[in-house]
Amino acid sequence: MTASVLEIRARVRRRRSIVVSAVLLAVVVVAVVSLSMGDYAIAPADLWRTLWGGGDRAQTYVVFQVRAPRVVMALLVGASLGAAGALLQSLLGNPLASPDLLGISGGAGAAAVFAILILGLTGPLLAVAAFAGGLIVAAFLLLAGQRRADGGYRLILAGVGVAFLCVAVMNFLMVRAQVELAQSALIWLTGSLSSTPWWNVVTVLAVALLATPAVVACARWLPLTQMGPATAASLGVRTSTVSLAVVLTAVLLTAVTCAFVGPIAFIALCAPAIARPLLGHGAVGIGTSAAIGAALLGAADLVAQFALPGMSVPVGVVTGAIGAVFLLWLLATSKGRQL
């Protein structure tokens, strides 16, 4: 191995370490600010003392029962969506691939709305219904992509069509439902982190931990599949198996977050797109994308809570507004115009 190759690898590792450290620091800063700000402000020193069991009763209640579940859920959901977007973009080789634009979030949302309005399901059963809806859409897209050589681009168009169909189904169900049920479904569809109980956080954390080995395995296999089916097969990797594992993992991460906080738009699209130029060489670091997704959603939740004085808006409104601008910017760049 030549010295130049070693230098390049050392430079890539050094850059990756710097990027990961900076992103993790951003996550910590967002978490600290989120735990400190509010109607009952807590100084950083008091927050640190409270986290270690030294705060008074009011500080302990505010931190652990009011703010901490929301902050932890924001970080978990952002990380899950960031990882899901990175997996899909790496699989399809398309910067527009995300659960939102591919219709996976729409399928999960339509199934969840059906479960809420028609079946009256809540909690873990709602997550199962959302996963089933996302899986049905993903299976359709996989079949459509296998029939075309340029499936990555056609999948985006097919996904947009499926997303519109899911919106139509959700609107039909809400029009036919009772006002009270339709209102609860509408609040869920907006995407909100308010009133998050700890059991929701524990459920999402358990699913994320369950999916972590699959994410790590997919991260190792995806670079081999990008060399082509013949090369991957010679190295003992079947592209069809990798594609199925990636899609199932992405659907699981998307559906469980969608079930508990509603569809959070554009985090899965933005996080990998931010990670790619930071890491360089066109790489999509799945772990880095997950950390960026956590920081993005945590920051968006801060904006949702405190941007408008005396008024809190659902975090889905903020991510939708930011994501729409980001998508327009992505399409306006040279890479976006080639799609």
In short:
Its main location: membrane. It is a multi-pass membrane protein. By secondary structure, the protein is mostly helical.
Mean pLDDT: 81
> How can the largest sheet be summarized?
none
Give helix and strand order, one letter per element, not per position.
HHHHHHHHHHHHHH
Question: How many separate domains make up the residues?
Answer: 1
* CATH architecture annotation name: Orthogonal Bundle
CATH class category name: Mainly Alpha
- The proportion of residues in beta strands is under 5%
Instruction: Kindly identify the CATH topology.
Output: ABC transporter involved in vitamin B12 uptake, BtuC
What's the helical proportion of residues? Answer: over 70%
- The CATH homologous superfamily corresponds to ABC transporter involved in vitamin B12 uptake, BtuC
Structural class: mainly alpha
Overall outline? globular
